[in-house]
Structure formats: C-alpha cells, structure tokens
Amino acid sequence: MGAALVCLGALVWMQGGRHYGMRRARLLMAGGGVVATGPPAWEQVVAELRLRCGRWGAEWWALVAGLVTALLGASLIPAVAGAAGVPVLRRARLARQARLARERRADAVIALCGALAGEVRAGRQPGEALLRAARDSGGLGDAQAAVVAAARFGGDVPGALAAAARQPGAEGLLGLAACWRVAVDQGAGLAAGLDRLDGALRAERDQRADLRAQLSGARATAVLLAALPALGLLLGTAMGADPLRVLLHTGAGLGCLTAGAVFETAGMWWAVRIVRRAEAV
Using CA of residue 85, residue 90, residue 95, residue 99, what is the dihedral sign? Predict the structure, then answer.
C-alpha cells in the first residue's frame, strides 16, 4: 500500500514537472512575457487538477475506489466492480448534463420571447426585433445563424424557428414560429401572442420545478439507501470485524455479496424508474 502511494505521488510530480517545463518552453519559444523560475502557484495547480478531473469525469473515482478497496481487501473483485461502474456513472453524468443543457435552453427560449415582445412594443419591425432579441438572449442555440439570416434577408423565419425547435429544450420556438406566421400572414399583434406564449412557457417551467422539488425527497431517500452498505462496511471495520475479508475470501461472504449487489441494483433501478415516470407525467 505504501509503495503504491509513493509511486502515485512520483507520477503526479513527474507529470506536473513535465507540464511546467512544457509551459516554460512555450513561453521561451514564443518570446513572450516573463518566465517564472519557481514552481507554479497553488491556484494554477488547483485549476489544472479541476480541468483534468472535468476532462476525465467523476465516474473514474469509482475505479479509484475499487482499486483502493482491492488493495485493502487483497482481492480483484472490488477493482472489477469499480471498472464496471465507470460506464454506468458516465451514462448518468451525461444524462444529467443533457438535462441541465435542456433546461438552460428552455430558459433561453423564454428570455427570447420576452425580449422579442419588448422590442416589438418599442416600435421595431419584427425582423429587426428578432435580430436584437436573438443577439441578447441566445435562445436559438446552434440554429441562431439560420434564424438570423432568415430574419435579415427576408427568408422563411417560421421555418427556421421550427427547425431550431428540434433542439432538446427549445420546443417553445414552435409557438414562436406560430405567432410569427399569424402576425405576418393575418396582421395580428405579435406582442400579444408573445406575451401569452411567454406566460405559458413560464407556467410550464414552474410546474416542472415544483415537481422536481417534490421528488427531491424520493431521490434523497434512494441515495441514502444506496449508501447504507458502504456505511455498514465502515462500521464493521471500525468494530474490528474485518468485513472485507469475510465478504471477499469466504464462500458465505461471496454469496452475501452477490445477493446484496443484485438487490442493490434492483432497488436503484426501481427507484430511478419511479422518479422518471413521475417526471414524465
């Protein structure tokens, strides 16, 4: 264990020194600025560690925990379990990132509708108002260039908005496209339609937030129940029972470990399914 920690520390030190040397060489070759001769500041070290952790993903900590447990328990089973947990945790992290991106895009669409309504009330033409609102809110996402080009050069703005609505979280742009089409074709008030659309999108967002707040207790309970086995192992170790040896090196312990892992996985799957079905209603 001590030899492994020493090797890990040496590897981190060598990696830090190599990157520091590369930064110094880049500065010398570029001929810019003053080259620092001492070690990098702690702020730079912390920022670099955060960047590497964000690049690797938090799911790799499952592998680290599995390796540490494998060293402590003198068995390969925790390492294999940690490696198997990496793709599962990565999928959960990517799903969470996609949900956050979808929510940010929905908020940006609401801001776009409000800004566009304000620009129209200020007396600007719909095309110019859309250009200003899109520049200020950024609610069009990746399709902003197509929508801006259609508004600037007299193209099919509703079609461009409908295409932009295919992005996750930007479904509200379909309502904006409908308001635009009705206002242009029939001469209806665009600002009034945008106000109603903005109110409907805000009400839907508030409803989702309220539902998520109500389900937070269920999520916390599921996480707590999932962490109880680890707490039991820690308590057993503190009492001197050596639960890792029993679970990893005896037949009864391996049977209990297998059954516990199956029940734990089934319980987590069931809890996640209940929460997702409640959110989809």
Answer: positive
